Prior knowledge:
The complex is a heterodimer. Chain A is α+β, with helices and mostly antiparallel strands. Chain A has a single domain, classed as Mth169, Chain: A, CATH 3.30.1280. Chain A has two helices and three strands. Chain A has a three-stranded antiparallel β-sheet with strand order 2-1-3, with helices on one face. Chain A is elongated, with a radius of gyration of 16 Å. The N and C termini of chain A lie close together (5 Å). By secondary structure, chain B is an alpha/beta fold. Helix content of chain B is 20%, strand content 27%. Chain B is built from five helices and eleven strands, in the order βαββαβαββββαβββα. Chain B has helices at residues 14-23, 67-77, 87-94, 151-159, 214-220; strands at 2-7, 27-32, 44-47, 81-85, 101-103, 111-119, 135-142, 146-148, 163-168, 184-188, 194-197. The radius of gyration of chain B is 16 Å and the shape is globular. The A-B interface holds A 9, 12-14, 16-17, 20, 64-66, 68, 70-71 and B 57-58, 61-62, 65, 93-94, 99-101, 103-108, 146, 148-150, 179.
Amino acid sequence: MTAIINISLKNGVLDSQGKAVHHALKSLQFNNVDDVRVGRQVVLTLNATDEATARAEVTNMCEELLANTVIEDYEIEIIA
Amino acid sequence: MKVGIVQFPGTNCEYDTQYAFEKLGAQTAILWHQETAIADDIDLVVIAGGFSYGDYLRSGAIASKSPIMKAVKAYAEAGKKVLGICNGFQVLTETHMLPGALNRNEHLHFISKHHHLKVVNNSNDFLCKFEKSDVVNIPIAHHDGNFFIDDAGLKGLYDNEQVLLQYCDKDGATSNPNGSVDSIAGICNKAKNVFGLMPHPERAMEDILGSTDGIKMLEGLM
């Protein structure tokens, strides 16, 4: 089982990397971009068979280590 | 007076910190991150600056889960004093011993230079030798020093006199190098025994280094 975790800065927290990338895209004449958010992806290979258990465990991992919930949100996708 | 200085893989300011406290007459001990207890004779724990675990995942995140941080947390909960400098401040927010978080600098640059700081509150050991609004000159050297806290948290910091220092210019006017909320450079916990700041007082101990303003800060903890 695989867990894909996408971690990004919360709305309201300045995403300075996103801003810099947005600026660079504009300088390349990509003018249709309204906003850029840069996040981080963590992919876990899990030794689990039950999706609900896996999701609960990965949620704990996010809360304890993988994300800093003061400034970051996370989304978990489980692939059997 | 004995100061314990925490060392993780990637810490690089532990010996500067040791030099600074020994210059002020303290005994020191380096505390390796795998130690599980803080000895009874340690009067102050300092988490020194550097790049613990290469700043992997987030600055301070992996260090915050190391065995010694459990011991440091218990040590602080017993009312003893803890100071985190730069990466040490990041580690203290990641362990939730201090509120808020340190995000990437607003303009993405690693900033390494002397910067002026204004004393906001002196009702704590760390800044007790200063007057409010005193301006000091202390080096900063960080990539992730952009202090973030939500509005409710910020109000709490002011209400409880937990804001220690703000970035400013030489005259005390606001000058924000990294995008920190309210230009905040350092804070303490509610109990005022855990202190964290991005600037490096241990690098402002000699005239030849451009400032001796760090001496009064570190002396406050002794």
